[in-house]
What does this fold into?
Amino acid sequence: MEIKFWKPTVSSGQVKATVHQSGNLGFSSLAIQKLKLNENSYVKIGTNSKNPKDNNLYMVITNKEDENALKVNKAGNYYYLNTRSFFNEIGVDYVKKKIIYDIVELDIDGNIIYKFIRRELVRKNKK
It folds into this structure.
């Protein structure tokens, strides 16, 4: 028998993206680094068409403009996507719920695809 032990990694935050009440998808600083986002980046967003219960997102990052890709926008040190119409189309309630996606990298047939694993929280009313 040979046991291979998992080596813990130290992280100063989470690789995640959050849907804002405007419908924009904003990326954490670690997500920006992991996905290597910049002003020349484009993102293709997809869903799992074979499993309607899979509410995760799947993304591919590219530097080529494409009719199926969204341009990455920058405001200060912040990167985001204009995803309001996408989330409306797939029925995500980003106004009443705080939608967070934890990002993991997948290698599928030699292609890097990012899986955005969905978490939901009830938004707290600001007083």
The chain is about 10% helix and 40% strand. The first helix runs from residue 29 to 35. The helical segments are 29-35, 84-90. Strands lie at 16-19, 25-27, 42-46, 57-62, 70-71, 73-75, 78-81, 97-108, 111-122.
